[in-house]
UniProtKB/TrEMBL annotation:
It comes from Leptobrachium leishanense (Leishan spiny toad). It comes from the Eukaryota. The keyword Cell inner membrane does not apply. PANTHER family: PROTEASE FAMILY C15 PYROGLUTAMYL-PEPTIDASE I-RELATED (PTHR23402), PYROGLUTAMYL-PEPTIDASE 1 (PTHR23402:SF16). This is Pyroglutamyl-peptidase I. Keywords: Cytoplasm, Hydrolase, Protease, Thiol protease.
Length: 209
């Protein structure tokens, strides 16, 4: 009997500000070329840099694909490494998006917790990805920036009860090529998926009650 392929959704952002071609979308397209193996149905989606588009799109992605997980990718002009974000924040959104819009409440979810953490063991993923791909530096962060990157992460964590991840990539060529960025995303996803299928371990970290 043929094993059913499970969906994994990876998103990247469209252009904004000085990023006329967003490195996150380039990296996601490179990942799509590499793939995640025969058992995974990889879906890639470009997300507009718009708050309302994010609020509409995230529930649609979970409802449409019922994925194992969704990984969101964004660009950071300050980053020099591939940065795996631990958590998303609910409040503090004061920058306007590509439509010159900003949420009136300055938050993702009214009444939601201030911070939501991914249930994925981010530090372990970073450690294993670093050993898998030695020519790219991976780091962990707890501040995704209070703009669309943070906004989509919190929104997705809230929607999925923690079954999401966010990765920041530096601009292409500073210092990594598009191919290296795609390989970095592939390494992260393969580590997560290997943790998921290994019955001796769990994809999610054990949290104390």
């Amino acid at each position: 009997m043929e094993t059913q392929r499970r969906a994994v959704v990876v998103t990247g952002f469209g252009p904004f500000g000085e990023h006329k071609v967003n490195a996150s979308w380039i990296a996601v397209q490179e990942l799509d070329k590499l793939g995640l193996g025969e058992s995974i149905d990889l879906k890639i989606v470009q997300v507009p840099v718009e708050y309302l588009a994010v609020k509409r799109l995230i529930p649609e992605l979970w409802a449409t694909y019922s994925p194992l997980l969704i990984v969101h990718v964004g660009v950071s002009g300050m980053a020099t490494s591939v940065t795996i974000e631990e958590c998303g924040h609910n409040a503090g959104y004061i920058r306007t998006d590509n439509c010159n819009f900003c949420p009136g409440t300055h938050c993702c979810v009214e009444g939601g917790p201030e911070c939501l953490h991914s249930d994925i063991d981010v530090k372990e993923v970073c450690k294993r990805a670093s050993s898998e791909l030695s020519d790219v530096q991976f780091t962990v962060s707890a501040d995704a920036g209070r703009y669309l990157c943070d906004f989509i992460y919190y929104t997705s964590l809230y929607q999925s009860n923690g079954k999401s991840l966010f990765v920041h990539v530096p601009p292409v060529g500073r210092p990594y090529t598009a191919t290296q960025l795609g390989q970095a995303l592939q390494a992260i996803l393969k580590v997560i998926l290997s943790m998921h299928v290994n019955h001796e371990e769990r994809i999610y970290c054990q949290r104390k009650a």
